[in-house]
Amino acid sequence: LSQVSENSLCRSPGAMSQALAKEIPQEEGQGGSRRSSWGLLVTAGVGGTLVALYAVATPFVTPALRKVCLPFVPATAAQIQNVLKMLENRSGSLVDIGSGDGRIVIAAAKKGFHAVGYELNPWLVWYSRYRAWRDGVHQNTKFYISDLWKVSFSHYRNVVVFGVPQMMPQLEKKLEEELECNARIIACRFPFPCWIPDHTAGEGIDTVWAYDLKRSRGCETKNLEITPESES
């Protein structure tokens, strides 16, 4: 009886191996599917991160790949004050070429100018708009995402330039062709190569140069006096 009970309760080695063969692959299959799911999640996460980094970095990297690089270097507080000094007793519209985070445009708007900024980096333009709204001058400011070489500055009386030496000769020619004689151009950090400044302020990296275009062109306005002909 005991022998019959043992034989009925115990399985043969062949039966056990078959049972294990059925259970083990099932467990391995579940583990493999889990690993596959984790692998897909990790791949998707890494891919999403790379796409996000590309979206953020592209506007900053792309200008550096251009022939003339115009990097973002924030204007210092002293620079802004020197620019405002060069704008004293001036009126009319103002444009900042390469406006960066908009601090010069906003400072000019607080002094009563209708100020516009042109900047190639969209992230900086959006941030500039936010800063102008935060400082309460958004109605007197505008910021555009644009390449400066594709914009005409002919209707501006005051121009602020924050450039690099490589671009100044070409920009000097462009502004001389487009601006009216009553325009004033203010260059920050780097002067124009051919024009002689009419005013300067600051020193070192905070130096700004102001150029009155009518003097650079030699186009002083003259009043024409008409005298009556004397009777003979």
From TrEMBL:
<dbReference type="InterPro" id="IPR029063">
    <property type="entry name" value="SAM-dependent_MTases_sf"/>
</dbReference>
<dbReference type="InterPro" id="IPR026170">
    <property type="entry name" value="FAM173A/B"/>
</dbReference>
<dbReference type="GO" id="GO:0032259">
    <property type="term" value="P:methylation"/>
</dbReference>
<keyword id="KW-0489">Methyltransferase</keyword>
<keyword id="KW-0949">S-adenosyl-L-methionine</keyword>
<comment type="similarity">
    <text>Belongs to the ANT/ATPSC lysine N-methyltransferase family.</text>
</comment>
<keyword id="KW-0496">Mitochondrion</keyword>
<protein>
    <recommendedName>
        <fullName>ATP synthase subunit C lysine N-methyltransferase</fullName>
    </recommendedName>
</protein>
<dbReference type="GO" id="GO:1904058">
    <property type="term" value="P:positive regulation of sensory perception of pain"/>
</dbReference>
<keyword id="KW-0472">Membrane</keyword>
<dbReference type="GO" id="GO:0016279">
    <property type="term" value="F:protein-lysine N-methyltransferase activity"/>
</dbReference>
<keyword id="KW-0812">Transmembrane</keyword>
<dbReference type="GO" id="GO:0031966">
    <property type="term" value="C:mitochondrial membrane"/>
</dbReference>
<keyword id="KW-1133">Transmembrane helix</keyword>
<keyword id="KW-0808">Transferase</keyword>
<feature type="transmembrane region" description="Helical">
    <location>
        <begin position="38"/>
        <end position="57"/>
    </location>
</feature>
<dbReference type="GO" id="GO:1905706">
    <property type="term" value="P:regulation of mitochondrial ATP synthesis coupled proton transport"/>
</dbReference>
